[in-house]
Design goal:
- With about 180 residues, this protein is of the alpha+beta class.
- The protein contains 4 helices and 11 strands, in the order αααβββββββββββα.
- The protein is globular, with a radius of gyration of 16 Å.
Length: about 180
């Protein structure tokens, strides 16, 4: 059985003992070994949303439900992250900065599709865009090595791939109805 309080406690312990994403990724892997239990404990999402399960200066845990066919433009977190999918699928494109470009342009550097049960750790310098390519909600747990909601970071506008400051209100709006 997946227990939300135990998961949060295990994540807190992991970050206290190891400030990198390594230990938190192990906590996520244990949880995603039984994604049906995670779904049963959190409930199958009926609408999109982003719900904080825990938030502090050094750790944020969120439960996300992605809208069908939504696309989140390239962005960074300025902290490590661990993603675990407990229902559905998300496609990630990973990006890298074009060296010495004055506008902070980026170029595609790889991709990875995550399906139910998959876990994807990301270092603090990762830039990625995300989409839900399926016609139903995708459900995911995200662990961040910092305060996800308060950190200053960048996003890149989708057409010209120029860097700008990320607007957290706009991010939250993408996860609403």
């Amino acid at each position: 059985m997946f227990d939300v309080e135990r998961f949060v406690s295990d994540c807190c312990d992991a970050v206290e003992n190891d400030p990198t994403h390594t230990s938190a990724a192990e906590v996520m892997r244990r949880a995603m070994a039984d994604p049906a239990a995670v779904m049963a404990a959190l409930g199958e999402p009926t609408e999109p949303g982003i719900t904080a399960l825990y938030q502090s200066d050094n750790l944020t845990i969120v439960n996300l439900a992605w809208k069908p066919t939504v696309m989140i433009p390239p962005h960074n977190h300025e902290m490590w992250a661990v993603i675990g999918i407990y229902g559905g699928r998300e496609d990630n494109i990973f990006w890298r900065r074009i060296k010495d470009h004055p506008q902070g342009l980026i170029e595609a550097a790889g991709a990875r599709s995550l399906t139910t049960g998959d876990v994807c750790p990301m270092g603090p310098d990762i830039i990625h865009s995300v989409s839900n390519p399926i016609p139903r909600l995708t459900a995911a747990l995200h662990i961040y090595g910092g305060d996800f909601f308060e950190a200053e970071r960048s996003e890149w506008e989708p057409e010209g791939l120029t860097e700008q400051q990320l607007d957290m209100a706009a991010v939250r709006a993408r996860f609403s109805k």
